[in-house]
Amino acid sequence: MTTPDLNSRIAACSADIDGFLDHHLGAANRPPRLLAAMRHGALGGGKRLRPLLLRESAALFGITPQQSLAAGAAIEMVHCYSLVHDDLPDMDNDQLRRGKPTVWKAFDPALAILAGDALLTEAFALLSSPKTHPDPAIRAELIAALSLGAGQMVEGQVLDIEGETVPLDEDGVFRMQALKTGALIRTASEMGAILGNAGLDARAELVRFGISAGLVFQIADDILDVTATSDALGKTAGKDIEQNKSTIVALRGLDGARKILDHSVSGGLDALKGFGTQADPLRELIRHFAAREN
Ligand code: GRG
Question: What is this structure's pTM?
Answer without folding.
Answer: 0.94
